[in-house]
Request: fold
Amino acid sequence: MQTATRIENLPPYLFVGITKQIAEKRAQGEDVISLAIGDPDLPTPSHILDRLCEAARDPANHHYPETDGLPELRQGIAGWYQRRFRIALDSDKEVLPLIGAKEGIGHMTFCFVDPGDIALVPDPAYPVYSKSTILAGGEPYYLPLTGENNFLPDLENIPPDVADKAKILWLNYPNNPTGAVADLDFFERVVDFAKKHDVAVCHDAAYTEVVFDGYRPVSFLEVPDAKDIGVEFHSLSKTYNMTGWRIGMAVGNEEMINALMRMKSNLDSGIPQAIQHAAIEALNGSQDCIAENNSIYQRRRDKVIQTLNRIGMQAVPPKAGLYIWAGVPEGYTASDFAARLIDEIGVVVTPGTGYGNSGEGYIRISLTTPDDRLEEGLDRIERWYNSLQEGS
Ligand SMILES: Cc1ncc(COP(=O)(O)O)c(C=O)c1O
Reply:
């Protein structure tokens, strides 16, 4: 048996390796604290679960779903976008439910990238943008996100021949892993750039509801004409603690939505209908859980920042998202530092280089670990780091 070269050449997904390493250490009896994965520790709110259980018992929901989901779900998504961002969407043409944003992101690449084509991909970034490009036979052209450019890609610096050849541009704000945010001015420049070079824009907005200090992120689609050249991906995963149920959406440009629908209908059979009903409840029902979650994450954010700053590590408190992007102390690479934390004190963080070469010098700490474990993890880091300083 011989697997295809596209699989031979594909490295394992970042978190597959990390999860395996954690499982091995735990199997040896080690008390490992993971601050790595962005998976909310808080449960799905009970009104959403009640609807899910009720819908699961209804035989009407035991059949193949439609790929484009229930009309009530598409209307629920359009209504949520209208209330949250004042954006009007045609629920039949400009909305497509997904089996999680990750699925739609991966498949959208195949709608636009032919072998040899260029995709503009931020670096560091959620790995699916570059991995799906490579799987499609395309070439990622990396746009470095650095502290100097506020972790926004420098569109003016993209060589014009690259910009003209590029088929798709990936963006993600609030950003994973850097915690950076973007404003409407930036998105206006994106729309101008995309129109000038005929590039399809995909903005991944999975974290717009995880916010601190009253900050309110904008949607890319708030820019007039954004819908002419782009879509936005969103997700119920982080907003409603629903990572396990696998549900998200793509909204915006009709042609792009239609292409994604064509792709998906040939490959998958939609989202289990009981989960769609749970999602309708999440979007239309009480939104109280969002503020409740955010106050917990904000408290954790402040604790992480205080600890890191106390030991002299550089980290800016993010305005949104689930992550702290922290500079490693001098003399370490990102992967050295992360490896020492897991080997010496059983604390798992993600090395910045897991998200691209420009992540060198950083680690990512997730805020989705229960308070007592997070505090224990931070204590271990502080004690370990101080003991190194004393020994040096
Ligand atoms: C930037 C970004 N986009 C998308 C996703 C995946 O969302 P979903 O759970 O809807 O597939 C994640 C998950 O961590 C993410 O960080």
